[in-house]
């Protein structure tokens, strides 16, 4: 059988080959040699940079699925017990530096790695460490835990959704996990039974925190929280907890990063609004004027879906004026020479150039002048109609660079309001 060396092809052909491959096949190729791995990283860097997140969904020590954001969170790899591979051909392979039994991907199943209960967590840790080295720190790593008495011990996780059913082990499991992956961007904790967590300072350092734990006190968490958004949907919060929080917040003693706090009244949170309002200096907007609306983005639900929520109230609290953050340094691209401007623009994706062109008429003219040779190489723009229309160009190998989506398709990333093409749009 004749073989062809990939390295014999020109770079443009190698890029085309890699771009047409599934993510799992690219990962397989990276195992072949250090040289091929480096070639993959340099050749399809733009594709790897489009991967926003890798998600691990664990159902036990020997059960985990792995998915990525660029495949609509469809799983491309799965850790399963050896019994799962009983009726499928088993292949012995060296993956991630370990000899493992595998089942190749089919039309109906992702790639399987067979493991035992005692070595499943180590296998997942090895895979995670390889991804961190291969993809780098530019992408987010998410964990969803479906097992009530087990959490995989993984480092550098950015977003976590946890479910606990066994109360006795919950506090210890949570603390041990947060020791390895502290200060996360988002954590949601669900539990049908109460457990002690309110004094967990690692949990209080989460940037956006969702708590749905019935029968447990949340006052200490409210007091110690240092993040941006806190949602207490179920838990025990008293009037005194809220009054103390408001006193500290209004005096600028604590919670300087807090943008939004929401406490649902219900089981365990039977608050007395009249008592709370009597203890603070509550003011009201002029009803003859439009009441301000606060919009914020938040992640929620098992799928960690981004959505824009709104809040408005005729009442408000006047707080001491806080010192504004110092302005960030900015760089004007027009200050650079034409040669440097051309080099910067040449390394940008087409969709980024189009968005920058909408900044101003002057910038639009300069870009057309500097990028004339690049734009002349674009032979076609293709519009593909459907439920979510795609727009592609011949210069990107007909890979879509823009799509028009429905509102509920926005999963995995926040929506940003922008003025594009003279219209106010929401983009991601």
UniProtKB/TrEMBL annotation:
It holds the Pfam family F-box. Residues 3-51 form the F-box domain. Coiled coil: none annotated. InterPro entries: F-box_dom. It comes from the Eukaryota. This is F-box domain-containing protein. It comes from Caenorhabditis remanei (Caenorhabditis vulgaris).
């Amino acid at each position: 059988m004749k073989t062809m060396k990939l390295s014999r092809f020109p770079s443009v052909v190698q890029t085309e080959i890699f771009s047409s491959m599934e993510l799992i096949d690219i990962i397989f190729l990276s195992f072949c040699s250090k040289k091929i791995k480096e070639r993959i990283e340099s050749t399809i860097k733009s594709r790897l940079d489009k991967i926003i997140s890798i998600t691990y969904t664990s159902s036990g020590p020997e059960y985990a699925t792995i998915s990525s954001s660029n495949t609509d969170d469809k799983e491309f790899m799965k850790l399963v017990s050896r019994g799962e591979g009983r009726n499928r051909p088993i292949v012995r392979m060296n993956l991630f530096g370990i000899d493992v039994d595998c089942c190749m991907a089919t039309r109906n199943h992702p790639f399987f790695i067979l493991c035992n209960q005692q070595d499943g967590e180590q296998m997942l840790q090895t895979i995670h460490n390889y991804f961190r080295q291969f993809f780098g720190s530019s992408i987010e790593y998410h964990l969803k835990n479906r097992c009530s008495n087990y959490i995989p011990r993984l480092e550098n996780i950015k977003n976590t959704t946890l479910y606990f059913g066994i109360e006795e082990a919950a506090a210890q499991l949570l603390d041990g996990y947060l020791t390895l992956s502290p200060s996360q961007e988002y954590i949601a904790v669900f539990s049908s039974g109460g457990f002690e967590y309110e004094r967990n300072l690692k949990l209080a350092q989460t940037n956006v925190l969702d708590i749905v734990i019935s029968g447990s006190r949340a006052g200490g968490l409210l007091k110690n929280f240092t993040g941006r958004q806190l949602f207490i949907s179920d838990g025990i919060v008293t009037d005194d907890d809220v009054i103390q929080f408001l006193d500290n917040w209004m005096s600028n003693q604590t919670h300087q990063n807090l943008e939004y706090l929401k406490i649902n009244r219900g089981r365990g949170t039977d608050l007395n609004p009249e008592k709370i309002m009597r203890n603070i200096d509550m003011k009201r907007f002029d009803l003859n004027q439009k009441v301000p609306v606060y919009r914020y983005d938040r992640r929620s639900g098992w799928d960690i879906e981004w959505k824009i929520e709104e809040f408005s109230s005729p009442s408000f609290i006047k707080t001491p004026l806080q010192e504004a953050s110092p302005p960030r340094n900015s760089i004007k691209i027009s200050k650079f020479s034409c040669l440097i401007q051309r080099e910067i623009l040449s390394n940008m994706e087409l969709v980024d150039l189009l968005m920058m062109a909408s900044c101003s008429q002057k910038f639009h003219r300069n870009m057309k002048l500097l990028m004339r040779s690049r734009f002349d190489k674009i032979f076609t723009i293709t519009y593909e109609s459907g439920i979510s229309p795609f727009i592609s160009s011949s210069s990107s190998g007909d890979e879509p660079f823009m799509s028009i989506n429905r509102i509920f398709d926005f999963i995995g990333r926040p929506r940003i309001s922008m003025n594009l093409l003279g219209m106010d749009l929401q983009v991601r």
